[in-house]
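input
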Amino acid sequence: MATDLIELKNLGKTSVQWLNAVGIRDKETLEQIGSVEAYRKIKTRGFKVSKVLLYALEGALLDAHWNQLDPDLKAKLIKEAENNGQRQPEN
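output
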């Protein structure tokens, strides 16, 4: 059974509406697409978003509040989002 997005940490009514608008309607789809690509789809759609949305999406997948994400992870997410979603090689 698909998990409703509204049940996930960090996601509220507006962010769920944005996800739905880009075709992401459940946790399983969000997991498949990933937080960076979901963020990029929302941003490309023209919604005014901040990097906090990116952190919130990742936190939703990790079941953690976005503010508790490691600063290095946040920096990695931003770098991926700015590089058109291409994964950065591990060091």
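quick obs: Residues 23 and 29 are 9 Å apart (CA to CA).
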